[in-house]
Design goal:
The chain has 2 domains: about 110 residues; about 160 residues, Cyclophilin-like (Cyclophilin, Beta Barrel). About 40% of the residues lie in helices and about 25% in strands. It has 8 helices and 12 strands. Strand 4 and strand 5 form a beta hairpin. Helix 2 packs parallel to helix 4.
Amino acid sequence: MTAEINTSNSWIEKNRTFLLLLLTVLLGGGLVNYWIPHQRLQSQKASWEIYTQAQQDVRAAETASDYTAILNAAQDDSRVFPWVVTLLANNAAGQGHSDALALLQGTLKTEQLIGIHIQEDGTSANLLQTVASVISSELEAKDITPEVDKQTNATVKITLTDDAERVYIISFSVYSTCPRATAALLGAAGQWAGGAAKAMGAQGVELSLPEGTNADSVPLERSFGAFHSAGALCLKPVPTSTTGEQDAGVLAILTQDSYTLDGRSTVLGMLKTGQEDLDALAALEPDPENPGQLLGNPKITEIVWS
């Protein structure tokens, strides 16, 4: 027995360097696979909190000092700062707040805004130049929506048919920032036929799996820039969840900008084709005889991913 112990100790001594290297690799792998993604997730969460607070504060902003305070709260976060400047520029331009506009002109020289792009009336534009145009009243603020350059080659096409055989076909370009939600929806693609459509107030249209069909919940996936602008396809949070889990059995199509939802639900993609069909679907009145349904009873025919 003593000889066996001595042999083991001798092997450990001879291979000490290898064992230390192996331990370092294992610990390093744990750092890469857990700690770094965890830190990145916490950083993104902090950014969303800053932006959400800015959205709340801008509604109450009245003086140039209020604008300064909002800018100062966001200036150290390069992910958030460009969007806060855009948010304030839109608000100040809409109110004709000359003092706030003059203040914002001073922020346009910051390197944090260089290279950022947005959608200007449906066309990609440089954020720096666009905000300058808003401030100088050369461009209407309502024409500006954020741009997300994170689309994959994937497309999801949603087809609905009503009792009068009116067909609605709407397709979306899918973002690459929500792989878990996309995987869950792909897995349930064949289960949507017969699902209902209903109005989400003035915000858009909600689609759901047929009654009695179960759907998994998926974690909230949010990426800065994937905002809830008009035309966004997104999930809705599970009502009972305290961690932001999303209901993979409910899809929401927004027909107006709903930035108060930013960071609270997963944005899957943006409208690609079918604007007229979406407008027609959103214009339908609720069916008074069938609560939760739209007149004409449009149902999902199929959802196809390609």
